[in-house]
Specification:
The structure holds two protein chains of two kinds.
Chain A (H helix, E strand, L loop, with lengths): L1 E2 L13 E6 L2 E6 L10 H15 L6 E6 L3 E3 L4 H9 L3 H19 L5 E5 L2 E3 L1 H4 L6 E4 L4 E3 L13 H4 L7 H8 L3 E2 H7 L4 E2 L5 H9 L6 H11 L14 H8 L4 H13 L4 H12 L2 H14 L4 H17 L5 H11 L17 H7 L28
Parallel strand pairs in A: 3-4, 4-6, 5-7, 6-8, 7-9, 8-11
Antiparallel strand pairs in A: 1-2, 2-3, 9-10
Helix pairs in contact in A: 1-3, 2-3, 3-14, 6-13, 8-9, 10-11, 11-12, 13-14
Chain B lengths: L26 H9 L3 H12 L6 E4 L2 E4 L7 H17 L12 H17 L1 H21 L2 H12 L5 E4 L15 E5 L4 E5 L7 E5 L7 E10 L2 E11 L11 E5 L11 E12 L8 E3 L5 E3 L4 H9 L3 H26 L3 E2 L9 E2 L4 H29 L6 H29 L11 H8 L9 H22 L24 H4 L2 H28 L4 H7 L1 H25 L5 H20 L2 H4 L5 H18 L3 H6 L15 H4 L16
Parallel strand pairs in B: 3-7, 4-7
Antiparallel strand pairs in B: 1-2, 4-5, 5-10, 6-10, 7-8, 9-10, 11-12, 13-14
Helix pairs in contact in B: 2-4, 3-5, 4-5, 4-8, 5-6, 8-9, 8-10, 9-10, 9-16, 9-17, 9-19, 10-11, 10-12, 10-16, 12-14, 12-16, 14-15, 14-16, 16-17, 17-19
The chains are: A alpha/beta, B alpha+beta.
């Protein structure tokens, strides 16, 4: 076994992505445990570089991605992005997302299996780094969420692709409310492909080390050996699928809210009031653009989804329609007063043409649409892995 | 010499994108132009269907496709239709369909109905009967008391409506129906009767299983005098689904398509209904039994009565266009991935769409579908902006477009089915099945041939009125008749053929000439002592040619108007190419241009050559042009994607897909 850097020894200035080489297996370890492995520009670049190199390396048949510490990955390092932008130009922020989305695309169209071990927090960018891969292992420590609407952003990193393909309208629910899911729920809804108790992870990894084939069926049978069927907790949102479908299938955010409110009248369920509350706390602009993004993403392939999300994120960074992203980052990540002042503050203040603007090309001479690496287009693995 | 046996490499699926250069026009802009309105509502509804198990999602070649299970029995298909309706109802799809007012509400309703039809024609027809026919009759023929009582409950499916107009003995000739209604002033009730077997109501969608109420079209007999056809509301089932007393219902049985719609037959045996159930917007009966109507002439009364029913023809015409789009998207995608025969030894076989003959089969139909799309958008627009003055135009245009667009669809379906070869025969590939599902469109809401005769008749009436009153033509797009007769150049170069001026001129010339000929023949026959009606029967050939001429000219106008609204660029150039193909294929195929001498045989030959050139120019854009239809992948079929994977051995093994829950 070759270890490029000792695990756990670095943070800040050290290696942010560790690489272990083992026969045909490469294990990539996100290594910023103090920041819950939040993806820095450096990490995204490194991951992209490694993934692209492994694609053509016949000595690599399988890639494992995992995190050091109690998180798999808590998201993109948006605090750093916002710092960059506040220091000058929104284009600096756009650069980060460009790189990150290209990484997401490469993972989504990768010809070799990626096994992501989600033994801890998986949020935002962390979901983007794992959900596009073939195998997603949840454990009893997994906590999944797409919390962007509470941050004034929207579920990006290809979430309009993978959320929209969840059963019924669960994707809308997860994407709009930022609801947290545990490992059992991730497995139930299809975000995870396997559930392995964390105690068995080292054995599983040892078994994968010995593999000399990257055939999905072979990997799948090994994963099956270590998997178990977890118990879905009694008050799980996944049990509310009927209500979720009834409410989150609605055409607009306003109708989703009013349907939820009608449901709340007929039931004393805490879950419904908590759901309504999280929608009321989220940025109204974020809710509207997120819903549209998920709805459009449902009918598009992953490349189209990421291209569209890139347009959206550039508009968010430009802050022409709303500066909610900066306000959200201030209130949640920087000042931590948890009391963002959204502007526009009410759903009815946001009209169609304001939403439309997020989906249009950016009016800037240097700006261009996301350029997907052609090599990965039209590959057989373009198909949904969910 | 024995050819040496060497293993030939297996065929690999190569996606249509690899056989097509990147498009130079923007696909989503083109889609916006084609769909015209409510794009997000459409996509929302596509999503609602894709996300629900009720819509029969199936995995094939790693993708999900949705379409009904046509292998289910007729009864099962009908129950599924009803379940799907309830699901869409719960999602709020039908909100405001009857309680809302105004063009925006109507356009949204049209858009959603179109999308539903792309999933399944049965589902669209079943909804069309309930909302457009039953609901529309109440809206248009009824007055406030009916609106208050029925519209909200109809919108929410508290009651299920049907529409009993057609009888065994009378279809398009509604005025000949035999059902009779009398009034009993002692009880203040109408009494409805089916006096003979030919008076049984027939093909009544919803009647066989589900409908609780029906509109009954019937002769109204007051004090021994027939006042003509009127519409009434009658209940045919109670809330538990039991047939009401004095009503008999039977099934129309299994059909060549639309088996998800429960078409039934109804007999009325002294069915009594309250006086208020007469839909009285045009005429009423007082409690003491006096017939009251502001319109004295029964002919006019009848016309005023039926005018609002045009909405049915509007939805049929537009859904025909979407059916054509589906079949072309499937057949063209397949033709960009399927190869047959090598033309040089040891070379790969040739892609179907690289055969000029295959291009000639599909690409003109593609161009025509673009034209028909603009025509349908125009029809919807004049319908939702209707005024009492525009009723005549709407009647004529909707009759013409309904006939032309539905005929075009059937032709397109057949050609696309054949273009897909054996794969076209599989129900999962949709096109073949759609032939049966859509065939009815040339018959219901007015037989196409009869509609086209009505178009010619209306044009003749207009011509005679202009002559008689010595005034210029105004309306129906006939203003070109006021100008001097267009002159067609004797030499038709490629650039002339592609100019909108020439294209407009030759269509106007044909319409003008045929209208004059038709009028002349009619007056000649009438001068010989034939009645007007008999003369019309004799002149059917000119009438048919004229009906086509009117439609082609009107459709071209909608195309030119759509094009004019687009600013210069690749999109506009593409439209102009499509328009030329649309016009030239009509010039090539319609014998009237040679028959009446609008084109010389030499010019006709030149046009045929130009069509071939246009085909080769459209070929690189074929994929982009069908992608611009905005049809989600899930609504196409396995042969539109990786059909080798979809047919692989592993795809029929039970464990497939089992590792990934979803």
């Amino acid at each position: 076994m070759t270890v490029m850097a000792p695990p756990g020894s670095t943070n800040g200035d050290g290696e942010q992505v560790l690489v272990e080489e083992n026969l045909f297996l490469r294990t990539l370890i996100l290594n910023r445990p103090r920041q819950l492995n939040a993806l820095s520009f450096q990490m995204v670049s490194k991951l992209l570089e490694l993934f692209v190199a492994y694609e053509d390396d016949c000595n690599v048949k399988l890639v494992i991605l995992k995190g050091n510490g109690r998180a798999f990955c808590a998201g993109g390092d948006v605090a750093a992005v916002v710092r960059d932008i506040n220091g000058g130009d929104w284009r600096l922020g756009a650069k980060f997302f460009w790189k990150e989305f290209i990484l997401n695309y490469v993972m989504a169209t990768y010809s070799k299996p990626q096994v992501s071990i989600l033994n801890g927090i998986v949020m935002g960018g962390g979901a983007g780094a794992s959900m596009h891969g073939r195998f997603r292992i949840a454990t009893e420590n997994s906590v999944f969420a797409m919390p962007e609407t509470a941050l004034g952003l929207f579920p990006d990193v290809g979430a309009s692709y993978f959320l929209s393909r969840l059963s019924g309208f669960f994707g809308e629910y997860v994407g709009l409310t930022g609801a947290r899911l545990d490992g059992a729920e991730m497995l139930a809804c299809g975000l995870a492909t396997h559930f392995v108790p964390s105690a068995r992870l080292s054995l599983l990894e040892a078994a994968l080390c010995k593999l000399d084939s990257g055939a999905p069926a072979t990997i799948s049978s090994i994963l099956d050996e270590y998997s178990q069927q977890p118990h879905l907790k009694e008050n799980s949102a996944y049990h509310k699928l009927a209500v979720i479908n009834r409410c989150f299938s609605r055409r607009t955010i306003e109708e989703i809210l009013s349907t939820l409110e009608r449901e709340a009248v007929n039931s004393a369920d805490n879950w419904i009031s908590a759901t309504i509350q999280s929608l009321q706390k989220a940025s109204p602009t974020s809710l509207k653009i997120s819903l549209r993004s998920i709805r459009e993403g449902r009918l598009q392939d992953v490349g189209q989804c990421l291209t569209c999300e890139y347009r959206m994120v550039c508009h968010v960074l430009q802050g022409e329609v709303s500066k909610d992203f900066f306000e959200g980052c201030r209130a949640i990540l920087l000042d931590k007063d948890k009391n963002p002042k959204w502007e526009p503050s009410r759903l009815e203040q946001i009209n169609e043409s304001m939403v439309e603007q997020y989906f249009s090309k950016v009016d800037d001479e240097e700006w261009e649409d996301l350029k997907l690496p052609a090599k990965f287009s039209f590959s057989a693995s373009l198909l949904a892995k969910l | 010499m024995e050819p040496s046996l060497s293993p030939s490499p297996c065929l690999q699926y190569s996606p249509p994108e690899l056989a097509s250069p990147p498009s130079d026009f923007n696909l989503s802009d083109m889609r916006k132009l084609m769909d015209g309105h409510n794009l997000q509502d459409r996509d929302w509804l596509f999503g609602l269907m894709i996300q629900s198990k009720l819509f029969n999602p199936r995995f094939s070649g790693g993708r999900v496709f949705v379409s009904p299970d046509y292998n289910q029995s007729m009864e099962q298909q009908r129950e599924m239709t009803m379940k799907r309706i309830h699901y869409l109802l719960d999602c709020g799809v039908f909100q405001e369909w009857l309680t809302g007012r105004g063009p925006e509400v109507e356009m949204r309703k049209f858009a959603l109905h179109e999308v539903i039809g792309m999933y399944d024609h049965s589902l669209a027809v079943k909804l069309g009967v309930h909302y457009f026919l039953w609901g529309g009759a109440i809206q248009f023929f009824g007055t406030k008391r009916h609106h208050d009582k029925w519209l909200r409950d109809t919108e929410n499916y508290v009651i299920k409506g049907c529409f009993a107009m057609t009888e065994l003995g009378h279809g398009s000739n509604v005025r000949g129906i035999e059902t009779v209604t009398t009034y009993d002033s002692k009880t203040g009730e109408f009494v409805i009767n089916s006096p003979c077997e030919s008076a049984q109501k027939y093909w009544i969608g919803g009647a066989a299983n589900h409908a609780t109420h029906t509109i009954v079209f019937s002769q109204l007999n007051i004090n021994g005098k027939s006042e003509g056809v009127h519409a009434f509301i009658a209940q045919i089932r109670d809330t538990d689904g039991n047939i009401c007393p004095n009503v008999r219902v039977a099934d129309c049985g299994h059909k060549i398509g639309l088996n998800g719609v429960d078409n039934g037959r109804i007999w009325f045996d002294n069915v009594r209904i309250p006086r208020e159930n007469l839909l009285n917007s045009v005429a009423d009966v007082s409690p003491d039994g006096q017939y009251l109507s502001a319109i004295k002439d029964p002919d006019q009364r009848f016309a005023a009565f039926l005018a609002p029913l045009t909405s049915g023809r509007v939805t049929i015409a537009t859904s025909a266009v979407y059916s054509s789009k589906m079949s072309l998207a499937i057949a063209i995608r397949y033709s960009l991935t399927r190869r047959a025969f090598s033309i040089t030894p040891n070379q790969p076989e040739v892609l179907l769409l690289d055969y000029p003959s295959h291009q000639r089969r599909l690409l003109p139909l593609l161009a025509k579908t673009y034209a028909m799309s603009f025509a349908a958008n125009y029809l919807k627009m004049i319908y939702v902006k209707r005024t009492p003055e525009s009723n005549k135009t709407i009647h004529v245009v909707s009759s013409a477009f309904k006939a032309i667009l539905t005929w075009h669809n059937m032709r397109t379906l057949q050609e696309c089915r054949e273009a897909c070869g054996g794969q076209g025969l599989k129900t999962e590939n949709r096109i073949g099945q759609m032939k049966g599902e859509y065939d009815v469109q040339s018959t219901f809401e007015g037989d196409n041939n009869i509609l086209m005769q009505q178009v010619s008749k209306a044009l003749l009436a207009e011509y005679i009125a202009v002559q008689k009153r010595n005034r210029p033509f105004k309306g129906l797009g006939l203003e070109h008749m006021n100008k001097s007769c267009p002159v067609i150049p004797s030499q038709l170069t490629s650039s002339t053929l592609r100019s909108s001026q020439f294209q407009t001129d030759i269509f106007c010339l044909r319409e003008r000439d045929l209208l004059i000929r038709f009028a002349a023949e009619m007056s000649q026959l009438q001068a010989q002592g034939l009645s007007r009606e008999y003369a019309l029967l004799q002149s059917y050939q000119l009438a048919e040619d004229l009906g086509r001429a009117f439609s082609d000219r009107a459709i071209l106008q909608t195309f030119l108007d759509a094009e004019a609204a687009v600013s210069s660029g690749p999109l506009k150039s593409m439209l102009s190419l499509l328009r030329s193909m649309h016009v030239l294929i009509i010039l090539e195929e319609d014998a009237s241009f040679l028959r009446y001498g609008y084109l010389s045989p030499d010019n006709a030959a030149g046009i045929r050559k130009e069509v071939t050139i246009l085909c080769s120019e459209l070929r690189p854009h074929a994929l982009a042009l069908v992608s611009s239809f905005g049809i989600p992948d899930a609504f196409l079929s396995p042969i539109a994607f990786n059909w080798i994977d979809a047919n692989s051995w592993s795809s029929v093994q039970p464990q497939q897909g089992a590792t990934v829950p979803l």
